[in-house]
Amino acid sequence: MEKKILIDNGHGIKTPGKRSPKEDGWPEGGRLHEYRYCREIAREVVARLKAQGYDAELIVPEDADISLGERCARVNAWCDRLGTKNVVFVSIHNNAAGCGQWMNARGWEAWTSKGQTMGDKLADCLYDAAQKYLPKGTKIRTDLTDGDRDKEGNLAVVRGTKCAACLTENLFQDNREDVDYLLSPEGREAIITLHVEGIKAYIAKYGKK
Question: Are the C-beta atoms of residues 193 and 128 closer than 8 Å to each other?
């Protein structure tokens, strides 16, 4: 069976914070708003996957901040309908190191649930793509304690979904250099491409398993 690819975008229009720090000339309080940026990236990821013949769709088409429980329920409804092995879920976010101030942390990382799951294999394909498509020298943030690169935790959308699931943190919205890159044409293209190609690589390698 063809894989169902579900793409999630972080947070909603009324979520407090979740944006780059305030700067002169930006009345909304920062150049980058996570809800808007990640929706733009997620929509383009879905569009490109569909254009290449994949069955992809947004799990949160709304601008509102749909609850984590509802997001998981939407994913799991597809799992129940198609079988967990036939669903892939990726949630797209921007990272942050502080509370409204410019910080020094930088880089890209991916999170899965605890233990060895197909989410780890999905994350591995996304890590490969991040290393390929992000600029040379970009910090790729990893946790190698369990033998693979992804970070593991209790993030609700990867813990509460039944299928291969991964959450990406695409550079830091409170680092000036990362924000400059994220908002540049080449930055947007790299973030979109790494998701498209990472997901395609996962399906090519594990699509029949």
Answer: no
- The H or E element containing residue 112 is strand 108-113
CB–CB of 19/13 below 8 Å? no
Q: Which two tokens stand for residue 164?
A: 């291969």
Select from 10, 6, 2, 32 the least CA-distant residue to 176.
32
Is residue 29 over pLDDT 80? no
**What is the pTM for the complete model shown?**
0.95
Residue 8 phi, psi (nearest 5): -110, 145
39 to each of 44, 74, 105, 141, 204, how far by Cα in Å? 8, 17, 23, 23, 26
**Tokens linked to 111:** 């999170």
Pairwise CA distance, residues 109 & 37, whole Å: 17
Beta strands in the chain (DSSP E): 4-9, 55-58, 87-95, 108-113, 151-153, 164-172
Report which of 170, 155, 163, 158 is spatially closest to residue 206, judged by C-alpha positions: 163
Phi, psi values for residue 106, rounded to 5°:
-145, 165
* C-beta atoms surrounding 52 within 10 Å: 10
- Please give the helix or strand (H or E) that residue 186 lies within, else none: helix 185-206
Question: Residue 23: what pLDDT?
Answer: 83
Enter the tokens of residue 117.
Answer: 């799951």
